[in-house]
Amino acid sequence: MPLPWLLHPPAVLPLRVWLQEAESPSRHASHSLLSCSTNRFLCIWLWTCLLPARAEVHHAPVEQGRGAWKTAANVHTASAARITESKHLGPRRLIRRRIVHQVALNHHHVDALTVAPMIDLNYVPFPVHQIGCRTCDASPEISHTKKGSERWKRGLPPPPTLFTSLIISFGAAWTGHRFSIWFPCLSRLEAMQSLHFSYKKYRSRLPIPVLAIALVLLISLATPTSSCTEQEKTSLLQFLAGLSKDSGLAKSWKEEGTDCCKWQGITCNGNKAVTEISLPCRDLEGSIGLSLGNLTSLQHLNLSYNTLSGVLPLELVSSSSIIVLDVSFNHLSGDLHELPSSTPGQPLKVLNISSNLFTGQFTSTTWKGMENLAVLNASNNSFTGLIPSHFCNISPSFAVLELCYNQFSGRVPPGLGNCSMLRVFKAGQNNLSGALPDDIFNATSLEYLSLPSNELQAALDGSHITNLKNLTTLNLGGNNFSSSIPDSIGQLKRLQELHLDHNSMTGELPSTLSSCTDLITIDLKSNSFSGDLVKVNFSTLKNLRTLDLLYNTFTGTIPESIYSCTNLTALRLSGNKLHGQLSQKIVNLKSLTFLSIGGNNFTNVTNTLQILKRFRNLTTLLMGSSFMGESIPEDETIHGFHNLQFLSMANSSLCGTIPLWLSKLTTLQILDLSGNQLTGPIPAWINRLKFLFYLDISNNSFIGEIPKSLMQMQMLTSKNTAAHFDPGILELPVYQGQSLQYHGIRAFPTVLNLASNNLTGAIPQEIGQLKMLLSLNISHNNLFKQIPQSICNLTDLEVLDLSNNHLTGAIPVALNNLHFLSQFSVANNDLEGPIPTGGQFSTFSISSFEGNPKLCGSILFRSCGSTGALPVSTKQHNKKITFAIAFGVFFGAVIILLLLVCFLISTKGTASIRKDTSTATEDVGASRSNTEQPFVIVPQRKGEGSNFTFIDIVKATNKFDKENIIGCGGYGLVYKAELPDGSKLAIKKLNGEMCLMEREFTAEVDALSMAQHENLVPLWGYCIQGNSRFLIYSLMENGSLDDWLHNSDDDTSTSLDWLTRLRIAQGASRDLSYIHNVCKPHIVHRDIKSSNILLDKEFKAYVADFGLSRLILPNKTHVTTELVGTLGYIPPEYGQGWVATLRGDIYSFGVVLLELLTGLRPVPVLSTSKELVPWVLEMRSQGKQIEVLDPTLRGTGHEEQMLMMLEGASVAMINKVLKPLEWSGDTERVNSKIVWLKYEMEWQHDNT
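Above: the chain sequence. Below: its structure as tokens.
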């Protein structure tokens, strides 16, 4: 170590110190356990060694508070803990801690803050120290001192040396404590588990004898060091070689020398044996090699938060040395029942496999021999079957069982009452049913019982629940529990969180609830509780932070005892029958950030606002459906609400005008005044609310014109200032009715709703400035003049409702460029002219246009005459109608006569006509066209092919002979064409009656030709001959996927092998991603199926028929209803009146994946078998995934990949994934599955 490090230590050095007790003796004998930052700490110690000093270690008191859950990498799981504030559960209890250590050394202070889960049980002598992070420093530990100067320049500490560990070891020996200094990546506070134990407050004096320390240092300098064994080094390098992406780990290990004990993430003991591998959140990809099983001294393995795939090696689970194994948040798969029976005495104590893709059932053989297992977290996988109950019989020290977010079924298993050490049992979000077994209440050590979102029923057993004296969290929400809360609940003195929401519970709240003085959260929403809240003395609940009583039938007034809960941050009383006025005493709730009192019978809105304006921390105020019929206060003295972001006073029949004091709410983002009786003009100052992005003032009586200031709302005009409402400001979830097709995951979309008022004038041209707007509703007003063309600039619009006004003119054609538009209406106006075609207009129903007598178009069954004809006066229009009728009668008579002549001619069989070439062209509707007209070569293909004509195509298809038909679908026939030069093409003939007029058809094809992707069937050109339209494509030699899966013979030699099927899935998924996300305009395919996936001679997949829905009239689809798609591939929600969407394509693609896996058709032909999708989902729920695989694929060694694809396909089949999402607890769960599905659809070839 250079001398300057001894003489000039930095004055203030940040440092995270973990005080660790009860550690194994071999744990930290080597300096490699210390991260590079330790040397800053070392410098202070060395400097202090030269001075007479005493060091003080202060263990600051622990803050107490409420724990919560949070997502990790968009993957929601109950096992991912959001570490906010600590839970104090008493000595040796599972709690969340915040421990602050401050080391004061003379004038140098080192502050350390560590928020981390600890396992402080005798059965787990190991701190689960590594927590997840978004990004990790790729070089936190560089071992060579020659790099110290470079690191110091970058603000990093010098590399570790042997001095550090000697100093710490000596200090530990002196005080009787062990010190471990860790610097894990802390940017995302995601704990491996919510396993937290308390420490006693204490303060110790730490004398430092200078001579003794110096002596140890001198001895250490003379002591030769050894390195790890060659076998261990080889095993680590083999593991590294098995990674397809190491994110710089290989380079780092190479730079750190040949001693693997000095490598990043590697910890050795005093004998230089590798005891720990800690590589979380390193963005590693690939598989976990078998070589790690050769590390015979390995005790702790942490590979969490990476992208590792494949199976979990059996050698790791059955290792004779591993104590803690954490592979959570990866993409591992396989069945646990494939693991071998473990040998007796296996040391494994902590196993975390949460948030992976594991499937199958838990069997007794899986856990046999794990006599020391204490913690098992298998949350957020796809396990099925029954929950086993034999853990405690195998391992007496079993303490934590987490099985949330799986597909377990049946009853909660009896036998858990035998688990004398069981402290945590979580099995929420499964399919459990029945009543809770009586013996579960015999698990008297239980502290955390969480079974939400199942199908449990019956009443809470008041006589047995009192056995759970140590219970701190009881979560039974989202079930079918009935009856009332038992009085005996008051005996649960340590209860901190009570969640009984979304059940069918009745009765009054027991007064004994006030005896649970440690309560932090009470969530009883969506039940049928009744009675007066006054019976509960809330004043004893000093720690209460959340009280949620939404949607019950409580009566009376708000009990004043609630106002004594000074730590309350969220209070929701909405949807009850409370009455009276708000008390002045509510100001005692100074920490309140969320208040919802709507849906009651409260009075005196002015007094309420005068009181609440004093709350400086209040961000959400929901007062809707209360204070009925009162006047909204205009008192300018109502100012305050310094942090208010969400204000709702909707559906209260409030009178008056929009008050000026609202303009002072400068932080407001969401304002809902709908459903009142407000009058006057919309104030011009509305644009002063620079953060406002959601404004709903519908269903009032506003007058005047739409102010141009509304068109200047900063959050709606530019992406640079676009709103990103953080749901985190909501202490409780808020449910809002409007859901959007493409932006459903957002808690609140950007909205401007002015519907159902008395607004007049024209729609401002400036409306095109609101480019971030997702929903615009100005229906049911008195607006007139034309729809401004600028409205077509709102390219993100999903909802546009202009109905029930007096708008005139034509519907802007450019509206068909709004590719996200899923709800549209201009009904009941005075619009005229043709309805635009193409784009999303092909998905809108007749109700979107009715009530406009002068509109025309096929959807209204009214012809527009010549394309682009301008509207005419009523008189001229009537004359034309008269003329058209007369002409129609005459022309009809002529047609009948001609048909009669043709019939007579055909019966004579005139040979000359049959030989006439013109007759052949008449067969395709081109008798009056020039057959020498060349095909139009689309812009992307010009110069790439010869200039052939339509007659060339006629000859190449042998006059469109049926022998050359190679495909048939809803859009027309496909012919094989071979040109004289040997070129082979595919000609798709579209039925002229279905197609757009020539101008629109040409424009649409030109737009589609811009879509260029390696997995799209290349479009070479098109031709218009009379009423027919022709598209020319490259010919795919191997036909369609449907041919190979369903129309080939039974010879297995001609069937597709797995790798070919996987490549086909890859190619199709890449194309789907392209047309949905990259292609401009975005394209909804609407008919993804195996027959539309074509294969070239190399079996490369190409998606066909993309964008053809844009060329077809909306009432001419190939099914008998207004739906689109093919039977078996149509998403269920289409049958519920939904429009064609990108999500529908994903569903259809999921069906194709199932075809690849099973070899079966989506709908059986001439068979009574079940349809493919429900059959696969049923087999999957029963854990029989292997049985659905194509028999020709089984036994090929690729079952793991097949099951991975099956999991991704199954996610696409689940209806709730495809529905518009409200912001609720389930959204994060859905998010995680969508992320995994995206992963499945983006396989790379190196994963095969």
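Residues 1052-1248 form a domain with the Transferase(Phosphotransferase); domain 1 fold (CATH 1.10.510.10).
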